[in-house]
Every structure is written in C-alpha cells, then in structure tokens.
Write a structure and sequence with these properties.
alpha+beta; paralog of FGE (formylglycine-generating enzyme); 285 residues; 4-stranded mixed sheet
Length: 285
C-alpha cells in the first residue's frame, strides 16, 4: 500500500513540474510576442510619420522645394521705409489662400540643362543660377518640366506669393530686419559679388528656408507690371491687364542694397535676357 502511495505521489510531483515548466515557457513566448508587436507598432508609426511629412520634397531632376503655408500678410512698403518707392504702395493685406511649394534655390544651370539641353548663360557653372533667361523662356522651361513629370502644377510664383515667401512672416525691409549692414550674410549684391553670380545656397536662408531671395539673380514672377498697387488682387492671384511688361523681384549680384529689399520691384519686357535675371519656381499642392 505504501508503495502505491509513493508511486502516486511521485507521478503527481512529475506532473506538477511539467505544468510549471510549460507555464514558464508560455509566459516567455508571450512576452517575446508582445515585444515583437510593440516593435512592429513603432516601425508602423515611424513609416506613417515619414509619409505624412510633406513639408519638403525633391522632384525628378533633384530640385528641392519647401512648403509655404497659406496665410495673410501686408504687401508693399510703408512711406517711412528708407528708399522705398511709390510703386510699392499702397500697402494692402493679401490672403494667400492655399499652401504651395517653392524652390529652395533659384533654378540652377545644371537643372536648366537637364530640362532644356541649352546653355544660354553668361556666367558658367552647374550650381550657379540660370541667367539670361527671358520670362518667355522661363515659362518654356516650366512647360517642359510639367511634361517631364506628367503634371500641370509647376509655374512661376505670382508677385504676391513671391513677396509673401520672401518676407517669411516679417514686416521689416529685409527678411532679417531693417539693418542693411547685415545684408552680406544673406545676399550676393554689388558690394560682395565680385561682379558675378555665385553658387546658390551659400548665404543664410530666410526664416522659411529659402536662399538668395535678396540677391544673386533677380527673379521673374507671373504678373504684368502696374505702377502702383491700387486695385491689386488681395487673394494672391496673378495680376494681369498691366502694361505688358513683366515684374521681376529680389535684387541681383549687381544691385545696390536698397534694391534687395523685400518690397522692391522692377519690370522689363518678357523677351528680355539679362545676366542679372533668373527665376525660381513653385509647385501647387
């Protein structure tokens, strides 16, 4: 009888050990599965974040763009801004109704050649801004780029979009303030350019990450020229029915410091080709 009891107790003990061992194994496997699930969740969240981050993009030929947020700003210059002109007035509120992408840099010679396979430039260098580009030819580049990427979203900025992006939320004469002594940190102009264009992106950007908005080459915009801002659009759209000459903005390597102000504007015929004028493009969102 005692032998039977001993055998039964031994069997129970073995069963208990087996169950305990099995339970530990299951717990470890469960913990490992939970850890793997957590890692998968982290990877999924990271992928979603990267997908949702559309603040910048690079297109098929390597042009870099940054998203400019919709918003309101005061366009033009006040009468007390030093060296301002009457064609920069009256100041008026403009509402940019939609986000848009804007080129981080002026269109470079390398980018122009990739799309157009021509070299009309006076200065030569892959990373120099494309210049001696007429308003008409800038639009031909844009048409070709749209075909290349099977889209219709690329275009020149409107004059209001250009100034909105150049100011980048500021109201001062320049995007960095009113002190023109600081201009050399942000722009190539007549005091520091050595009478030539320079590679894009070497100076400091404006608050929205755009380079060379105050100099290097002046930049074409869509609009026809008007001698003042009376009856100017307030929604950021292109202003037509002007004198037939097109506006360019931003100052150049040959400009005085006062002509590099955010509000400064000038005009010339759409077929004109000058080594002081290039362009930068936008893409609609």
């Amino acid at each position: 009888m005692l032998k039977k009891i001993s055998v039964i107790l031994l069997i129970c003990a073995l069963l208990a050990v087996t169950l305990m061992t099995s339970g530990c194994s299951d717990s470890e496997e469960t913990a490992e599965m939970e850890q793997d699930t957590d890692q998968d969740d982290i990877l999924t969240e990271t992928a979603v974040e990267e997908t949702l981050d559309d603040s910048t993009f690079i297109n098929s030929i390597g042009m870099e763009f940054v998203k400019i947020p919709a918003g309101d700003f005061i366009m033009g210059s006040p009468e007390d801004e030093a060296y301002s002109d009457n064609d920069e007035r009256p100041q008026h509120t403009v509402s940019i109704e939609n986000d848009f992408y804007m080129g981080v840099y002026e269109v470079t010679q390398k980018e122009w050649i990739k799309v157009m396979d021509t070299e009309p430039f006076y200065f030569e260098g892959d990373d120099l801004p494309a210049e001696k580009i007429s308003w008409n030819n800038a639009n031909k580049f844009i048409e070709a780029l749209n075909r290349l990427e099977d889209t219709d979203k690329y275009r020149l900025p409107t004059e209001a979009e250009w100034e909105y992006a150049a100011r980048a939320g500021t109201t001062s004469a320049f995007s960095f303030g009113d002190d023109s002594a600081e201009l050399a940190y942000y722009a190539w102009y007549d005091d520091n350019s050595e009478d030539k264009t320079n590679p894009v992106g070497l100076k400091e950007p404006n608050p929205w990450g755009l380079y060379d908005m105050h100099g290097n080459v002046a930049e074409w915009v869509q609009d026809e020229y008007h001698s003042n801002y009376f009856k100017a659009p307030t929604d950021g759209s292109e202003w037509t029915d002007g004198v037939g000459r097109r506006v360019f903005r931003g100052g150049s390597w040959a400009s005085d410091e006062v002509d590099c102000r955010s509000a400064d504007r000038d005009e010339i015929g759409p077929g004109s080709q000058m080594d002081e004028i290039g362009f930068r493009i936008v893409k609609e969102v």
